[in-house]
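protien #1 (seq + structre)
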Amino acid sequence: MKMPSFRGSRQTKPRAPRRKFKMLHKPLERWHPGTRKLLDWAITVGSVLFCVLMLPTRFLGMELLGIGPNWLLIWVVAWSVKRSVWEGMLAGIVLGLLQDAMTSPSPTHAITLGFVGFLTGLLQKQRFIEEDFISIALIVFVMAIVAETIFGLQLTVMSYTGSGQSLRPVESIWAYYQRVALASAILSSLWAPVVYYPLNIWWQKMKLLEQS
């Protein structure tokens, strides 16, 4: 009398975990468009949170005269360089409000980053720049100086009382922000590829998948 074989049932049990992670092994081309869109937004929002967390962080080589890279400005440039003027400006305003929530709403970073997004989108629309690392580093350098200049202008306006007298010397404000602008521009341009390179590859891939 032969005993019934249970080999078939034993072989099917280990396959259950594989089915659970089957979607992770699929190429992105075979994913559902809605799932791809959700993943795209998750990575985009995650990169913003990464930049927010990196703002107060100081590692070796990430500080010059007490100033670190402006990670949110780098993100705004990376986002705006291939998008419209209004998309860049909106992203800059949103990220500026996030930075205000971490620091102080007065003076606001929404104006500075919003202008950076607007100007970066305008440059790309006019085809004044190329999309390589040197061009991106140069854009970040210029935009960091522009952002710090606008921030200094806000401080200058806020330093005056209703009587027209300055609460602090304007010369001291601009002497300080000249150093801040230069240090921020140098560090931000050097660290720009850390944010731009992976995001640019990912967004290009998502764009090609949407067009296919």
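ok now protien #2
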Amino acid sequence: MRLDHSFTVPAAPDDAWALFLDLGRVAPCMPGAVLDTLDGDAFTGRVKVKVGAVQMSYRGEGTVTRDESGRSVVLDLSGSETRGAGTASATVTASLTADPAGTRVRVRTDLDITGRPAQFGRGIMTEVGDRIVRQFADRLEELLREPATMEPAAALSSPAREPEAVDLGAAALPVLLRKAAVPAAAVLVTIAVIRLFARRASTPRSLQG
């Protein structure tokens, strides 16, 4: 599944690129994610999402490849549910270009996911991606307004720290309701038929005739 998103940050391309080179500072801007280890171009981390009362946690790893001349970053990610059989892998390419408002960031995600989130389909996944990218862009803008005083290692999370789950309920709830509609309708029809036969069975034969 391929997803495409874009956003603009109010910073010169050189400044925005310098920030994107610092994974330790950028990673905490991603909703629901924490960075556990960072060793050169390799890293590990955790992601937590929830849809209503359902909560899913993933643990994974990845590598980052940077193209200085083209101002692009490629993240190769893979992970699995900590309590489930679901898996997720993605190649995320972020490209930075000059824009009248600052820097335009285009994000292309090639996603392969199994387990419960796979039922959402492209439409819901795109809407979910939009929500996450908007939150990421807002946090990135705040970070760009702050002085770059944090070292990458300082952004790493304590192993005991749990990610703050990003709530996807508003985006995913409609598809869950649609998927539940058919079974629910079948149950209602079954109940109606049982009640009909029960009423007929309880009606005196003289009245039935």
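The radius of gyration is 24 Å.
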